[in-house]
Design brief:
The complex is a heterodimer of chains A (about 950) and B (about 500). Chain A has about 950 residues and is an alpha+beta fold. Chain A is globular and about 110 Å long. Classes of the chains: A alpha+beta (about 950), B alpha/beta (about 500).
Chain lengths: ~950, ~500
């Protein structure tokens, strides 16, 4: 059996437990690969040539467009598929000769046998639940120290290999220190471990691992992994790429890892913390995960387009991060390889489509970070406002009257009233325009402003927003005398969005008290209507402070200023509306209700208290009022401008489990992700942990477990780890990691013999230990740590370590890289400012992603530009100079100092040859520099040792773990 | 075989038997970068198999290509076709009239709202060369090379904001995250010169392009294919120079020790990545010299400086044009220039057609003319594809921001029509392809999408745009966005 064949066998064992007769064709093992290789490109989820799809079984059992049935159960001889793959006629032969070679006779025989045996279908492995498999019959049971080792050993032995010998204490300690904390070990830990390595190795290792897991550095190291997935950045992206304060969420992630928040809770809080009953400030902050999407504040960009783009990005990010399923392609058509239907993308999108955010310049909605007082005040304010509105909405049977004898004075364009009483504004409007109209009405208690979309077809909504930013009303007596009418409040059909409608009174006479409702969000700061988009017809009942008594001949004049702009440039005009008045005691009663007045007072004081809380504000998730939920429609071929039928929030049938579509929301969806029935969540997470430790995941394509991804190298191992993580470890990441790093598998030496290299060049079987390059963050952190410069300061706003001038050059942006002072220059890499359109050069060079979108895997490159960074970057030279001081401080003779340097930087006990090499380097450099005072000065005095230290930090052993 | 490749082989052979080495070659050192390996049959085309240890080794194209490299001159901000190449006497007649409603129905604008006024071409046009190409008086020097240029006047895009439109022009998709053209080109072709990056980006105008560095990113391709932004001021490549006080001899001395120490590690661990790392440090050492030399404009004679209008030590478009020639000579595959400031809205004097735009035309006229002339003189033009363009066109209406009147004369963004020209490597000079409507608002005849342009450029480089692909998100992705159906090579521009 070839190695590949054996890997296939290991995989296949996952299905043998289902109880099939030997010799029977297995769909996943035997048939699916034939389909995927030869058929689905044309007959898949995207292209269904001839009306045939090889993605769903039921589609193969019915007639295609030709009238023939591809698969007739039990009867290969009349199955069209078999006829076509065997055809001698080039016009009939499948695959068509231009698309690929004909099937081998072995493949054809397999297909025939499969049909004969009933054409049984299996879901792709990743969509079936993980199963704990019994492992027996290994020759080296004493090698096993954790259950996972049994599965690894089985794979190694099946390939005719043996595990490698145990690594030395130094090799293991370097590996585990970087893997768990992202930092090199301290020399003291090494000497104590080495003393016990042979006698009490297990106990000593446990002690080290527990210490590392308890270190605050642990959270900083693992948060880095999560920030790539969450596309965390300190800017909003696109053109100006302005600053965004969202670092408190980054700190939340670090804390969550350090507290070992169980992964199910970690998931639920980030996905839907805001929807948890009595959500805590931290749970609301957690939802900023979803607000790491980009906001486009370039002038003239369609806010709705980028709102939708952000929502779609959330969908894709959830599917990549938790389900390792390529969901993005379902936006335009059914999944090309996996059974997920086009509509199911939009059903899932509906979970996110109801959120308040809408690509506004200030990232509305935000929370005052992790502030309990704010949470309480905000919650109460919203509840009271809702009560106030509900009482107003409950009034029914009101007789509303159009203004009579209307007159219009538009500042721009034209205005007219149609026969149905609708007022239409047409023509060329300028931003900030005011519609003025007057008419007779008789005495009234309330005025109703209805704002209508231009189109009557809901599929065309939302339209450009429509917002009255300043509302004024005056009474005009026959003698021309004008009396302003002060306004008291607004009752609206639903309350949501950035503006309380009463904010439209803030600048009118007597409206001073409403100034507290102004809320600048980019393009507007208040008003009646809807902003930045109008989602459908809306109505607002405006109550004056007192009944408006009009004598015969009196008129009222209303002016509607429209000072807002959406898309960073375009006016949000009210172009189709209706104004009516009503004389109704119910409204009069509201006005005089002392309890109602008290509630308003409470709203006022709450608003003031909220304004007084001066803390960092962070964008978070908040859903629109239930009644105002956005509808979600399927986009034809993924095109937002071409909307089709309505869908309701749901998860795909393929992974439904026990999920109930009724009353589904983000919270129930989050619970479904971490439910016992979800086959992917635990597997995807343990695969990620494994990838971080071993360099490659058990599923190499960590972002794609679907048919188009790679197969697991050891499904039994993956399933064991997943079940252990979910059931035994109760989603504890620390416990899962602890078991992995204490395993025999992890403890192997990384040395690769030529024989092993030939058999398993990529170390997929793990018959040797991992030897991975340090990540971008680790390379910087190691240099700072080894040289003693590293600041232990945790958390807080991002910092600006030295960066060459001219790297930041964003358009329309005065943002500058103001180099940090003091210890902020030498903080851990995770605190470095992340600008999306211009990443920190030293990190990008070492494969850090730009954080534009979710990134599940960094592909390690090996380039000359990396050498330039670690040899020449002034920050690395500064570290080398500081390291040189530390080396000198160690004392002893030169060889002793060099031995210490190598040990500190690489944990290698330098042998005589290595020391001689370094010693010669040092003395050569000294000779070279002894007469060059200028060069010595530039290198900070101890020039030869600084350069030697820099050389040691550039050794391969210092760049890997 | 380059020196470097020989060195890597030598280093490898020292450590392993030939049999082992061949095994490594066939399976890739350390890691092969393809997730879908062995399952390549998804969709048309198959991913290229790249050796992780030598990702930039020169590779032959799939088909014979006429262009060996690209110099792409992007005028960031989108220059007005109405004031340069797309002459419309009809529009002149409509100048000052209110825009008819039919031109506004169903359109999205960045800034125009309500009813704007039509704006005729602001400058005089004349026909030039044998081909009789219409070029405005803003580019008097370039006009003399009219017969070298191949205009595509029927370009159109579906993005009308700078960031997304620039991303579309350079990556085939409007959202960040996809590889840029230069990344695809170096993925496909490798680099002729292992001592310089294969994909170099030069910016002028004081700013990076609106879409930031994503327009030269590697997207889902391995990061080694991303563009390297070089500067004409200071170090051309970040961290290229040795630290102060470190001479080239000292660096050599340190590297010798480093090589020997790393060689021991290879012996001890058998880690093939370490073999690669040794080679990369050596390459970095050579790059320090070669890149410094490539970027040394002082090495050019006075006549050349006069011809280009260059001033060594400054950041300028002229300097970048001269650098482009120097890099082309040295075998860099994709040389991307961005010149920022072409967003002529007319909101201030710098964005007015009369002043700001005119100054920019003057800024590019001489250096582009010099670049084409110089390439031709050196026999490089026929194998170098030079492309000039923006990210979209501009409206035949005058911008009326906020519904009012702008202080200066300018135009809003228009995705419906814009002009791109190409010269050199495999294109038919002295031609004009495609047409816009009588007011230059929409492309109407022989329309060319951004994806068609990409397909054509790839064709000139020797690639079938449907076959140069990379697996990501479950699909073999390509530069010509797989969701855009009907993308085609523009045969009419091929020589």
């Amino acid at each position: 059996m070839t190695l590949k064949g054996k890997l296939g066998w290991i995989l296949a064992t996952g299905f043998l437990t289902a109880g099939t007769a030997p010799g029977e064709v297995r769909f996943n093992r035997d048939i699916r690969p034939i389909f995927a290789k030869n058929c689905t490109a044309c007959h898949g989820g995207v292209k269904e040539a001839g009306g045939i799809s090889f993605i769903f079984r039921e589609r193969l059992l019915v007639e295609g467009e030709s009238g023939n049935i591809p698969v007739v159960i039990g009867k290969p001889e009349i199955s069209e598929m078999i006829r076509r793959v065997k055809s001698k006629d080039p016009d009939e032969l499948m695959p068509q000769p231009k698309h690929g070679p004909p099937l081998s006779s072995k493949d054809i025989a397999t297909l025939e046998q499969w049909i004969k045996e009933g054409a049984k279908w299996e879901e792709h492995w990743a969509f079936m639940p993980p199963v704990e498999m019994e492992i027996s019959g290994s020759k080296k049971q004493d090698w096993v120290s954790a259950p996972l080792d049994r599965h690894v050993l089985k794979g190694i032995e099946s390939a005719g290999l043996e595990p490698s010998p145990q690594a030395g204490a130094a090799e293991w300690l370097r590996r585990v220190s970087f893997d768990l904390t992202g930092l090199p070990p301290v020399v003291e830990d090494l000497s104590s471990l080495e003393k016990e390595w042979e006698t009490n190795g297990h106990g000593a290792r446990e002690r080290i691992v527990d210490k590392l897991l308890a270190s605050p550095s642990y959270g900083e190291r693992w948060a880095s992994v999560w920030l790539d997935l969450a596309r965390y950045a300190d800017t909003t992206g696109f053109e100006r790429d302005p600053h965004r304060d969202i670092w408190p969420w980054r700190d939340w992630v670090i804390k969550a890892f350090n507290e070992d928040k169980p992964y199910d809770q970690f998931t639920i809080e980030q996905m839907a913390g805001d929807l948890l009953p009595d959500a805590t400030p931290d749970q609301i902050l957690a939802t900023a995960f979803h607000r790491n999407t980009q906001t486009n504040s370039e002038g003239g960009t369609d806010d709705e387009e980028y709102r939708v783009a952000a929502v779609i990005d959330r969908v894709s990010t959830v599917w990549t991060t938790w389900q390792a399923t390529t969901f993005g392609c379902v936006q335009c058509h059914s999944h090309p390889y996996d059974p997920i239907a086009h509509d199911e993308f939009y059903e899932f999108m509906a979970f996110f489509n109801g959120s308040e955010d809408s690509d506004l310049g200030n990232d509305y909605p935000k929370m005052k970070t992790a502030n309990a007082e704010w949470v309480q005040l905000d919650r109460e304010t919203r509840a009271i406002r809702e009560e106030l509105d509900a009482a107003g909405r409950a009034i029914s049977g009101v007789k509303w009257n159009n203004l009579t004898a209307p007159e219009f004075k538009p500042q721009h364009g034209t205005m007219r009233m149609d026969e149905a009483g609708l007022i239409l504004s047409e023509g060329n409007l300028h931003n900030g325009t005011t519609h003025t109209l007057s008419g007779a009405s008789g005495t009234f208690d309330a005025l109703r402003l209805s704002i209508l979309p231009k189109s009557e077809k809901p599929a065309d909504w939302p339209e450009m927003g429509a917002l009255v930013t300043d509302f004024r009303m005056e009474k005009i007596s026959p003698d021309g005398k004008r009396t302003p009418i002060p306004m008291a409040e607004v009752i609206s059909d639903h309350l949501f969005g950035p503006f309380d409608p009463v904010s439209a009174f803030a600048n009118a006479p007597g409206g001073e008290k409403f100034k507290r409702f102004l809320n600048p969000v980019g393009g507007a700061s208040g008003g009646i209507g809807e902003f930045p988009r109008l989602s459908g017809p809306r109505w607002f009942v405006l109550l004056p402070e007192k009944r408006v008594e009009l004598a015969p001949g009196d008129r009222i004049e209303i002016s509607l200023k429209q000072g807002g702009s959406a898309n960073e440039s375009q006016g949000t005009f009210v172009k189709k509306f209706r104004i009516e008045t009503a004389l109704d005691d119910h409204y009069a009663a509201l006005r005089t209700d002392p309890e109602r007045a008290a509630k308003w007072e409470k709203v006022f004081s709450h608003r003031d208290r909220i304004a007084a809380i001066k803390v960092t504000e962070v964008p978070v998730m908040r859903d629109r009022n239930k009644a105002a939920k956005r509808e979600t429609r399927v986009f034809a071929r993924g095109n937002r401008m071409n909307k089709e039928h309505l869908v309701k929030a749901d998860v795909p049938d393929l992974l439904r489990g026990k999920f109930q579509a009724a009353d589904a929301d983000r919270l129930t969806m989050a619970q479904w992700l971490v439910s016992a029935e979800n086959p992917l969540t635990a597997r995807v997470m343990v695969n990620r942990l494994w990838m971080e430790l071993f360099g490659t995941g058990i599923v190499e394509s960590a972002e794609d477990f679907g048919t188009s991804g790679t197969l697991p190298s050891n499904l039994a191992l993956l399933d064991h780890l997943a079940l252990r993580f979910r059931n035994d470890h109760q989603w504890s990441v620390k416990k899962a990691l602890r078991e992995m790093v204490l395993s025999s598998t992890y403890r192997q030496a990384s040395k690769a013999s030529p024989a092993l290299l030939e058999k398993d060049p990529k170390n997929r079987l793990l018959a040797r230990g991992p030897r991975n390059r340090l990540s971008a963050e680790m390379i910087r952190d190691q240099a700072l740590a080894v040289s003693g410069l590293l600041s232990p300061k945790v958390f807080g706003a991002p910092v600006y370590p030295p960066q060459p001038p001219g790297v930041w050059n964003s358009v329309y942006s005065g943002a500058a890289w103001n180099e940090s002072k003091g210890e902020d220059r030498v903080r851990r890499a995770i605190y470095t400012y992340v600008k999306r359109t211009s990443g920190f050069p030293g990190f990008l060079t070492f494969d850090a992603p730009s954080r534009d979108v979710c990134s599940a895997r960094r592909i390690t490159s090996n380039t000359p530009l990396q050498a330039l960074v670690t040899m020449n970057d002034p920050a690395h030279m500064e570290a080398a100079a500081a390291f040189a001081k530390g080396i000198r401080a160690h004392g002893g003779d030169l060889r002793g100092q060099l031995a210490f340097a190598v040990l500190a930087a690489t944990q290698i006990h330098a042998d005589e040859a290595m020391l001689s090499e370094l010693e010669t380097l040092y003395t050569d450099l000294e000779k070279e520099l002894v007469n060059d005072a200028e060069a010595r000065a530039k290198l900070g005095g101890d020039a030869a040792m600084t350069l030697t230290a820099n050389t040691i930090l550039n050794m391969d052993a210092a760049l890997v773990r | 075989m380059t020196d470097l490749e020989q060195q890597i082989r030598h280093a490898s052979l020292e450590q392993f038997t030939r049999r082992h080495f061949l095994a490594k070659c066939s399976t890739g050192l350390g890691a092969m970068w393809l997730a879908g390996l062995g399952q390549n049959a998804f969709g048309a085309g198959a991913p290229l198999v790249k050796d992780a240890a030598r990702p930039l080794m020169p590779a032959p194209p799939m088909l014979p290509g006429k262009a060996k490299r690209v110099i792409y001159l992007h005028m960031a901000g989108a220059p007005s076709q109405h004031e340069l190449f797309d002459y419309k006497p009809e529009l002149k007649k409509l100048n000052g009239q209110e825009c008819p409603q039919e031109f506004l129905e169903g359109k999205q604008f960045a800034f125009i709202q309500g009813i704007p006024k039509m704006l005729g071409p602001q400058f005089e046009f004349k026909q030039h060369g044998q081909s009789g190409a219409w070029i405005s008086d803003r580019l008097p020097m370039l006009s003399t090379l009219a017969d070298e240029l191949c205009f595509i006047k029927s370009m159109h895009t579906d993005q009308f904001n700078h960031g997304p439109a620039q991303l579309l022009v350079h990556t085939g998709t409007q959202n960040p995250g996809a590889p840029s053209f230069g990344a695809w080109a170096t993925y496909g072709l490798g680099s002729e010169n292992q001592n310089l990056p294969g994909f170099i980006v030069l910016t002028s105008g004081g700013k990076n392009p609106d879409a930031g560095k994503s327009v030269w990113g590697s997207g889902y391709l391995p990061s080694v294919y991303q563009g390297v932004q070089c500067r004409s001021q200071g170090e051309p490549v970040l961290y290229l120079q040795n630290p102060p006080g470190v001479s080239r001899d000292i660096r050599r001395r340190s590297l010798d020790t480093l090589d020997r120490l790393n060689q021991r590690i290879v012996t001890e661990t058998g880690d093939t990545e370490t073999v690669t790392r040794i080679a990369q440090y050596e390459m970095a050492y050579r790059m320090q010299m070669h890149a410094t030399d490539a970027f040394d404009l002082k090495a050019e004679d006075e006549a050349t400086h006069t011809m280009y209008g260059t001033e060594p030590g400054k950041e300028s478009f002229a300097n970048n044009c001269l650098l482009a020639r120097r890099l082309a000579e040295r075998g860099v595959k994709f040389i991307q220039l961005f010149d920022w400031g072409w967003d002529s809205h007319g909101t201030d004097v710098n964005t007015s057609l009369q002043e700001g735009f005119t100054n920019l035309c003057t800024r590019i006229d001489r250096p582009i003319t010099a670049l084409l002339t110089d390439l031709k003189r050196r026999g490089l033009l026929e194998e170098t594809l030079v492309v000039w363009g923006g990210e979209f066109g501009r409206t035949p209406m005058q911008e009326n921001r906020g519904g009012g009147n702008n202080r200066f004369v300018g135009r809003d963004h228009n995705p419906g029509a814009f002009t791109v020209w190409m010269a050199g490597g495999g294109v038919k000079g002295g031609t004009s392809y495609g047409e816009t409507d009588p007011i230059g608002y929409e492309s109407i005849k022989d329309k060319v999408s951004v994806h068609d342009l990409h397909a054509t450029m790839l064709h000139l480089l020797g690639f079938d745009h449907e076959k140069l692909s990379y697996p990501f998100q479950g699909v073999n992705q390509r530069l010509t966005n797989i969701t855009k159906i009907g993308t085609k090579v523009v045969k009419g521009v091929l020589a």
